């Protein structure tokens, strides 16, 4: 009986990491999808949403939570698909966020470079966020399936 309770606690903890990652990934996608609309309809509000600090904070939440959930649950279900999909999603988000650093190297001779969110960053972030959502949902499904009797 105690073993069942402990297994339930571990399952809930593992699923909590995936749920947190899922929520953050959904918020990230919604944020990225809202930027173009905000730019068109309310440019003053859009400047707040375009702040690179928001994106940096999102990355520092999404990546560690995702890695923790995918690696931890890999030990539970031994299926590498969530980890692979999740890492690809994280790579897309990181590429979108840090692509301006590569552009800075190209344009080193120009005066001031202001980081603005462009279509590449938005598309990469949405694709990466959708991949993370899929990976977390698959991870939850595999963990639940691992603990059921079929």
Automatic annotation (TrEMBL):
The keyword Transmembrane applies. InterPro entries: Mercury-R_MerC (IPR004891). The chain crosses the membrane at residues 20-41, 53-71, 83-102, 122-140. It holds the Pfam family MerC. Keywords: Membrane, Transmembrane, Transmembrane helix. The keyword Transmembrane helix applies. This is MerC domain-containing protein.
